[in-house]
Amino acid sequence: MGRVEDKVVLVTGAARGQGRRHAVRLAEEGADVILFDICGDIEHNSYPLATEDDLQEACREVEKAGHRVVSAAVDVRDRAALQDALAAAVAELGKLDVVVANAGICPLGDGQPIGAFANAFDVDFLGVVNTVHTALQHLTAGASVITVGSVAGLLAEKAGPGGAMGPQGTGGAGYNLAKQFIDKYTMALAGQLAPLSIRANVIHPTNVNTPMLHNEQMYKMFRPDLEHPGLDDAILTFPMMQGMPIPFVEPEDISNAVCYLASDESRYVTGVQLKVDAGASLKF
């Protein structure tokens, strides 16, 4: 315990899923946490996103760990809103040590309008850039920037359009491109921040057991032979993604990586592409 004692951490997309688990784990390890989430749905995204109630529940879970929490309903696409909300949070908590740019959507499905591509790219890439660039003015030596990419996005880049791991529909293409850009952006950012003794690393998860994975459009990507596949159908083919014979990893598996990169255990680790993928990148 206490691996991030006395640090202040910003987590985006924090109301549920991976983001909430990261926030709670970091609080359990000693951090005060700033939680941002849009708390509303986004056009063309077929599954519902987190709500205000979800964000409040995440705050309660952080408080149970005995640490301070500040939250705000913020769209990561809106840099001005991010700047205002983060300035207020830092003023309350006193500083900012770690940024976890986690917020993302995955609007899959055939026949989507071009807006699905734009929304996926704007949330998944521009949202990361907005979050990090807004936070930079508050970071000092010893700080850590953690972005969240996707092994699926990297594999889609290798496979090319129409490849085995290629996107499903317009929104999927936007998602994959955004995740590829996050990887390149984080590596470039790490080079710029290293002289300031600020670290930047990207985590690339495989399938994670969250609402982003558990919806009909995602199931259909794994079971295109069925018109309305459910979990029982998709879980038979989920393991095809990984080298290890598992359907998905748990949010806690990603939180372990986040906690390591947020802590001083990784004080000289920067410019790393940390794949938590059960061997997916090896398999493909």
Could you describe the 3D structure shown?
InterPro entries: NAD(P)-bd_dom_sf (IPR036291), SDR_fam (IPR002347), SDR_subfam_1 (IPR023985). This is Carveol dehydrogenase. Belongs to the short-chain dehydrogenases/reductases (SDR) family. It is an enzyme of class 1 (oxidoreductase). The protein has one domain: Rossmann fold. 44% of the residues lie in helices and 13% in strands. The chain is α/β, with parallel strands linked by helices and 284 residues long. The longest helix has 25 residues, at 169-193. The protein has helices at 17-28, 52-64, 79-93, 114-136, 151-159, 169-193, 216-222, 231-234, 251-262, 280-283, and strands at residues 8-12, 32-37, 69-73, 98-101, 144-148, 199-205, 273-276. Strand 1 (8-12), helix 1 and strand 2 (32-37) form a beta-alpha-beta unit. Helix 1 (17-28) runs parallel beside helix 2 (52-64).
Number of strands: 7
Give the % helix: 40-55%
CATH topology: Rossmann fold
Assembly level: single chain
Shape: globular
How many individual domains? Answer: 1
- Rg measurement, Å: 18 Å
Major sheet: size, sense and barrel closure? 7 strands, parallel
β content, as a range?
5-15%
Q: CATH homologous superfamily name?
A: NAD(P)-binding Rossmann-like Domain
Determine the mean pLDDT. Answer: 95
User: Widest sheet: strand order?
Assistant: 3-2-1-4-5-6-7
Element string (H = helix, E = strand) = EHEHEHEHEHHEHHHEH
